[in-house]
């Protein structure tokens, strides 16, 4: 049996459903364990497992980005666990067995750097998504040299693509996603400082059908 240390979103040790909690070098982490076929679990356990699995598939599709984007928030836990906790609490909707993700509630990065103003994502030339924003350099920690993080997730394929691209001062950037041509994708924009120490809270820029 697992023991929660700081509530449902805090670190825990032992087994909770299909998840094993442990601690390594002072960092709480979670991993999945093989499920037993002898017990199906209570209705609440089955529901929680399904929610966790839905959130995990999404977060794992962009794990490299999550390691950058949730570094500032990952206090006493891994970046993936921080992103999982946020997604489970804020972005899982629906009822068993049809849980879905409310993409407009998802954060793919989470930090204190200002994002760009009035960001927009639109279909570009074949295999491209065009992003634009208003330069807000010198507001707070925002600098012209901050770089845009452009993100697309294709639910049909269960895959994500991102790029750290143009400078904030450029006010536009392109995400090349030829593998998503003809597919509907969800998009986000964020910014990261040139030093890579600061990252913005991502903004959902809507659904785009890739040409």
Model description:
- The protein is an alpha+beta fold.
- The protein has helices at about 45-60, 65-70, 80-90, and strands at about 5, 10-15, 20-25, 25-30, 90-95, 100, 115-125, 130-135, 145-155, 160-165, 170-175, 185-190, 205-210.
- The radius of gyration is 18 Å and the shape is globular.
- The chain folds into two domains: about 5-105, no CATH class; about 115-210, Immunoglobulin-like (Sandwich), CATH 2.60.40.10.
- It is built from three helices and 13 strands, in the order ββββαααβββββββββ.
- The mean pLDDT is about 90.
- α1 (about 45-60) crosses α3 (about 80-90).
- It has a four-stranded antiparallel beta sheet, with no helix packed on it. A four-stranded antiparallel beta sheet has the order 10-9-12-13, with no helix packed on it. A three-stranded antiparallel beta sheet has the order 7-8-11, with no helix packed on it.
- β5 (about 90-95) and β6 (about 100) form a beta hairpin.
- The longest helix is centred in the first third of the chain and has 18 residues, at about 45-60.
- Helix content is about 20%, strand content about 35%.
- It starts with a strand and ends with a strand.
